[in-house]
Specification:
single chain, about 160 residues, mainly beta, 1 helix
Length: about 160
């Protein structure tokens, strides 16, 4: 009878120890809440600190993170009239989409420079382009677009 109690007692102690120290989710979040009733509990959070990253040929997604569509103009020299520019995602990982509206069938030149001013990528764009950015190191970059008339705009981009 004593031999049968030893494994049961050991199992009880292990369950007791591990049950008190395990959490389903644990993290510092920006907002959240919960509700309880006799039917159960539900909790939610905003601003998840954990995420999963998936990437394939020219495609990547960060699951669990709000991905802002953010482009901030930091400098304009002789502003380019009627140019609407969309750059996404920002921050980016392995690719960058650049799409222009308002100036169809018009050639622009672009460059991506690091914060020291060294040009890392450059080329021409008419309507839209998908840039592969695997060779860029994580950091802050400046995207500059210009035309033949020395009109120019510069935007801040972040590589993760």
């Amino acid at each position: 009878m004593k031999e049968a109690r030893a494994p049961s007692l050991l199992m009880f102690i292990l369950i007791l120890l591990f049950n008190n120290s395990s959490y389903a989710q644990n993290g510092i979040v920006s907002a959240g809440g919960g509700s309880s009733s006799s039917g159960g509990n539900i909790h939610y959070s905003v601003g998840q600190p954990d995420y999963l990253h998936y990437s394939q040929q020219g495609f990547s997604i960060n699951e669990g993170i709000q991905q802002p569509h953010e482009i901030s103009e930091i400098l304009a020299y002789k502003d380019i009239p009627d140019l609407l520019l969309n750059i996404w995602p920002n921050p980016f990982t392995s690719f960058l989409n650049i799409e222009m509206a308002g100036k169809k069938n018009y050639q622009f030149f672009f460059s991506i420079s690091d914060i020291t001013g060294q040009v890392q990528l450059k080329g021409m764009i008419e309507d839209k382009i998908l840039l592969q950015t695997n060779n860029l190191l994580p950091g802050v970059y400046l995207f500059t677009i210009s035309d033949n008339n020395n009109f120019q705009k510069t935007y801040k981009l972040i590589k993760q």
